[in-house]
Amino acid sequence: MGSTDRTADRRALAIGWAALLAVAATGCVSMPSGGPPQRLDASQGAADGVQVHVYPVAPHKGESPYDLLAGFLDSSNADQAGYDTAKQYLTPAAAKSWKPDERVVVLAGAPTLTTIAEPAPEVTSVDLAVRGDQVAELDRQHTYQARSGGRYRESFTFVKLADGPDKGEWRINTLPNGLIVDQTNFKNGYRPVHRYFFAQPDPSSTRPQAAPVLVPDPIYLRRRIDPLTEAAQATADGPSQWLGAVVYSRLDGVTVSSVTVSDNRVATVKVDGVDLAADPGRCKQMAQQLFQTVADQQGKLDRLDLSAPHGACALGSTEAAQTAPGAPAGGDAGTQAYVQLADGRLTRYQEGPDPIPVPGVLGQVPQAGQPRPGAVAVRRDGAAAALIGEDGGRLYRVDIAESGKYGDPVVTSRAPKPDQGLASPSWDGRQDLWLVDRDPAAPRVLMVRDRTVVPVQVEGLNGRTVQSLRISSDGTRIALLLRGADGSVRLAIGLVRHGGTATAPTASIVSLGDIAPQLTEVAAVSWGDTDQLVVLGKESDRLQQLHFLGTDGSRPTDSPLQGGESMTELSATEARSRDDQAGPAVLTTAERGADRHLYRLKDNQWHEVLLGKTRAQAFIYPG
């Protein structure tokens, strides 16, 4: 798949999810607890559709502190690059010291302002407060952070000016740095942007190193303030504090002067602060980062021309595809769905009632002495699979070939029960396998490289235990389901760090953070794109639903896709085939009575997969 195709698909991702979830308009169907899929009606928020240009309004003569505060909040969120009008509400000293880009506080609804009586003529200073329920925040690096149940309160001090052209007028003298915005205005005024950085190489790997892959770093930028140049400069500014531990950039010290895109899909980027002629290799890598960032916003690109006062280079879409995000996800092989049948056979799914058994032992009904399959994970290239026996006690690595055999187990668990044993095998794009041993006496996360088993240290568990995991294709990030002391299972995401040597590799999961605080119980998670998680979970006092979350915890739309209480498992893929630009694909397994039913999401609708008289156990994508 070409790089421009991939980035165009990623650019449409948020729009695609919004269209998918605006079921009143697109005719999506829910997956009910019983019976066939049914049509679901849901409303779509106004901010998801029409965007409104907001113009700032300067303060009027004689306005009260209350009206000035309301006007300041509106003007500070208007479409104005330098906040010049908003600064007219401040004293000269405050206008110089205020840092509007320090952070953005996102409130659930319109902020509540303190109501006070009109100050007496002799009063020269008053305090007003802004309150609200905080749901998110952008830090100074534009990174989105979800908040749950947080109360926001900040004070603003007004003084009556004693001199100058506005003598006798009230102005804000003391205020918090940053901006305050409600959810509706946030959606109207900010847009999701992806900047890209190279994944750090694994120092312990002996496999031939492929081209370094780019990892998306999601941020939010103001929607109508030179969006292409702002996105490119945000990339040059470096990765978010969280992702920075596992990626690197070739744009350090670079200033982006301008970004333009012509009608023939050629981007022109001018930069300063670097001598491109002195290091042509760096120029190409800089162009790779910028190509993906610009294409993510603009759509398909055929070429990017990068120039500085000294030197220049160009990058075409074919060359850009070599390092594009999702390149290790398997391409066409990664989009091949598999059906695990109730009799133990692994089959390739095709349209129609007859799935095709894979070659070798995995495509055969287990014989006496062979393991009865439980969880199965197909490697992203489709050439091998990991299989955990249904007793949860052993993991096997098996080639998907006529010569494929079980051999000896690679990992063994001492857990007393199947539901406490090995679980959730997951392949990254480097052909390393990750899994969990839920043994209550010795819970652990493991990485398997060939037949070498590496214990993985997980930092920040704080008494919780890992129940399940899914690793990204680039191998830098990993989604974990964690069980707390109260028995609830929550979603977290961490970073993967590799170390050691070829003979003694090490791996650890660091910077663990909860990204879905609104979900009180999570049943399953999968990667739907290089920066998108598909999550089956519940919000408080609600039924189980399917949610789509960014790796930063943000949601592309307010409305989750109805999943139904019957859904038990899900599988998605980061890969896109060459001829499929429809967006992320999702497969689910649902239980109704004693039967399991398979569904796939296609053309924004759930479609039940009918296999005739063949009974299915699971529906999976590679990874």
Could you state the CATH homologous superfamily of the largest domain? Answer: TolB, C-terminal domain
Radius of gyration: 27 Å
**What portion of the residues fall into strands of 2 or more residues?**
35-45%
Number of domains: 3
In round numbers, the mean pLDDT is 87
Stretches where pLDDT falls below 50 for ≥5 residues? 1-49
List the helices and strands and how they pair.
Layout: H1 3-11, H2 13-21, H3 23-26, E1 29-30, E2 38-39, H4 65-76, H5 84-87, H6 92-97, E3 104-107, E4 112-113, E5 125-138, E6 144-160, E7 170-174, E8 179-182, H7 183-189, E9 190-199, E10 214-222, H8 227-236, E11 247-248, E12 255-261, E13 266-272, H9 280-298, E14 303-307, E15 312-316, H10 317-320, H11 331-334, E16 338-341, E17 346-348, E18 356-357, E19 373-378, E20 384-389, E21 394-399, E22 411-412, E23 422-427, E24 433-437, E25 444-449, E26 452-458, E27 465-471, E28 477-483, E29 489-500, E30 505-514, E31 519-529, E32 532-539, E33 545-550, E34 561-562, E35 567-572, E36 586-592, E37 595-602, E38 605-609, E39 616-620
Parallel strand pairs: 3-8, 13-14, 26-30
Antiparallel strand pairs: 1-2, 3-5, 4-5, 5-6, 6-7, 9-10, 9-11, 12-13, 14-15, 16-17, 16-39, 17-18, 19-20, 20-21, 21-22, 23-24, 24-25, 25-26, 27-28, 28-29, 29-30, 31-32, 32-33, 33-34, 35-36, 36-37, 37-38
Helix pairs in contact: 1-9, 8-9
